[in-house]
Known about the structure:
Elements: H1 18-31, H2 44-51, H3 55-67, E1 71-74, E2 78-81, E3 91-92, E4 95-96, H4 97-118, H5 121-136, H6 140-157, H7 161-169, H8 171-185, H9 188-204, H10 207-229, E5 235-236, E6 239-240
Antiparallel strand pairs: 1-2, 3-4, 5-6
Helix pairs in contact: 1-3, 4-6, 4-9, 4-10, 5-6, 5-9, 6-7, 6-8, 9-10
Pfam family, one: GntR
Keywords: DNA-binding, Transcription, Transcription regulation
InterPro entries: GntR_C, TF_FadR/GntR_C, Tscrpt_reg_HTH_GntR, WH-like_DNA-bd_sf, WH_DNA-bd_sf
Amino acid sequence: MNLSDSQTGGSVPRRVSAMEAVLSHLRSAIEHGEYAVGDKLPSEAELCRSLEVSRPVLREALRALQTMGLTVSRTGKGTFVVSNGPVVDPTFGDYAASDLIEVRRHVEIPVAGYAAARRTPEDLDHLAHLLDRMESETDTTAWVAMDTLFHLAVAQAAQNPVFRRVIEEIRDALARQSAFLNELGGRREQSNREHRAIVEALIDGSEHDATEAMAHHLDRVETTLTAIVRPEGTESPDGPESADTPTEGETPE
């Protein structure tokens, strides 16, 4: 199989990774009935041979299928199809994506405002250092770890331990979501710019700009997730996707 022909969307002007190509191929095969609900996928060794990819690449794609709710992995038995899609609400760790974004909007947006009003010089130094490291980091795993640290640091700057505890509770889910969106949405560079806008608002002490910057960041997260799980041309659970749904040239976390 020529995986270069398996694209996640012709309108996306960026290079599709090997993992994305594998995921696109397997997802299409499931959604078109080549693998029916209840079927067991071929073994990892068979898929690696037929798709001509390495085992780490294949495993990333299989994890993404499971996150999307299309498959389930059963220890010692293999990977089985449990849904033929379309995916509505992926799960990251213990939490559904829709629950995560709802909580993040109600917590992180006001937290950014409090952080702008209460941040200390030490908070700003810590955030600036984290941001510099993220902007120079090339390893996705390391970047994802710093992404969660960034959001924890903003909560810390709000000077209310309850806010930090809430972010700590969803930290694993945030990391899983961040990795998912970066692998499939090319989010890292864009997310760095959004984080930079948040930090600049905190430096300026502008509660309004900080809440606006965080709201924009979460909007982009949700837009990217929607673009991945409900590609253009598919319908949402409430009907056809609205024509004014925000989209971006670079499939954004």
